[in-house]
Amino acid sequence: MKQPRNNKRPHYPTNFVSSLKIILWFFYEMFSNVFEIWSLRKFYKNRSINVENPSVALVGDNLDEVNGIALSSRTLVRTMRRQGRRVYLIGVAFHTKPARMEEKGGAIFMVPGCCSMDQPGYEGSETAIPKIGLVVKLLRRYPIDLIEIEVPGGVGFTTLVLAKILGIKTITHYRTDLIAYFKFLIKNPLGVWALNTWVTLFTRFGGPVVVPSRAFKPKIIHMGVSQENIHILPRGVALSMFNPEKKTNGAWERSTSNYSGIRIIYLGRISQEKNLDMLIENYPLLGKKDYDVNLTIIGEGPYLEEMKQCLSQAKKIDFTGFLRGTELAGVLAAADIMAFPSTTDTFGNTVLEALASGIPCIVSNQGGPQEIIEDGKSGLVFDPNVEGDFLKKIIFLMEKPDILESFKKAARERALQFTHENSADTFWAFYQNLLADSA
């Protein structure tokens, strides 16, 4: 694939007119490449599927952003490639970045888009339509047996339409609880309804659905997907990277003010859908109760400045911004408790990273993180609908140092069950079985 030095294209703000322009661009791209698409359809109709060693493509929106979907998708592809499997990742480069091929041998493609607009309610993200001609060329050069669509956005929709025309089997991955996010992030009720309808229809017609936790299976059933078409497949964590031994690498001293007391951290996107108001309301109460405690917020997002303002009167707080690699691993390992109040996470990658670092987590009884920890052993589950329960769980661990230490050991042991290799093996077996059943 040709790699242009930049990715100049029309980019629009979020509004109704921009949405119409995106739709028109999609139809223009489809009709401009109708003969190439039809030729490719003939090619796919005449080829057979290798069930034992299939060729799989993961396709997603916003893969040029630092988020859980982008990172976990890349990790899954790279792990499978190391295992000798034919798997690819296809996304659209952000309008501010060049189109490119990230992995030697053609593993990760960030193709240019023909247009894009700001994603509704999600600052820093884009809805884009890829240059369909280039996607067609990729699908011919690397014949695909199965497509997994990570997000129901512009890239996902374009790929779904192409797959239906070409006869390629598709599955969708409900990685993010978009319907819950819309309620937090979109102020227009009509916009919330339209987006909910879009996600529901996309999920219903996109093929079998993968979810990372049992908690979201009922929601997918409510969208009209049959129970037998919903598959729970967990993710993995880099156990060598996130490790209690990283505690002594000096990252905590470099990245924080190194306050005294119990070290509480939050790691994740700084956005309202993460239920961060619960952290804002409860952390200052610990200071008023004369506990020696400090809070470190790791991450970035649209709610960051407002969160700083809300906590401006509270003591011993650090906002580190975005950390990665050994710096993040060191800060995690040096902490004592991970407070993760989100009620919308389908899995909780950062919770798993904390457990691997030997840090017990306090999580909500809504969403996927509750299924990662072992309540009362490697973490605690709180009920966000019970006033004071979140604070109560934090204080329990703070006041019982022996229990806290036992939780830390159990946290690491729990994380050992979630390796990238095990996750990749589980996904690959699922792909093979799905293709064998449809052969």
What do these coordinates show?
The protein has 439 residues and is α/β, with parallel strands linked by helices. The protein has two domains: 11-236 and 420-438, Rossmann fold, CATH 3.40.50; 244-415, Glycogen Phosphorylase B (Rossmann fold, 3-Layer(aba) Sandwich). Helix content is 43%, strand content 17%. The chain has 17 helices and 17 strands. The chain has helices spanning 16-32, 34-45, 68-82, 132-141, 154-166, 178-185, 189-205, 217-222, 251-255, 276-288, 304-310, 325-333, 349-356, 369-372, 389-399, 401-415, 420-438, and strands at 11-12, 55-59, 86-92, 100-101, 108-111, 113-118, 126-130, 146-149, 169-173, 209-211, 230-232, 262-267, 293-298, 317-321, 337-340, 361-364, 379-382. Strands 4-5-3-2-8-9-10-11 form an eight-stranded mixed beta sheet, with helices on both faces. α6 (178-185) packs antiparallel against α7 (189-205). The radius of gyration is 22 Å and the shape is globular. Mean pLDDT is 91; it is low at 1-6.
Number of discrete helical segments: 17
State the distance separating the first and last CA atoms: 31 Å
**How would you describe the shape?**
globular
Q: What is the fourth-level CATH superfamily of the largest domain?
A: Glycogen Phosphorylase B
The fold-level CATH name of the largest domain is Rossmann fold
Broad structural category:
alpha/beta
Main beta-sheet annotation:
8 strands, mixed
What is the number of E strands? 17
Number of domains: 2
- Note poorly predicted spans: 1-6
How do the strands line up in the largest sheet?
4-5-3-2-8-9-10-11
Cα radius of gyration in angstroms: 22 Å
User: What's the CATH architecture of the largest domain?
Assistant: 3-Layer(aba) Sandwich
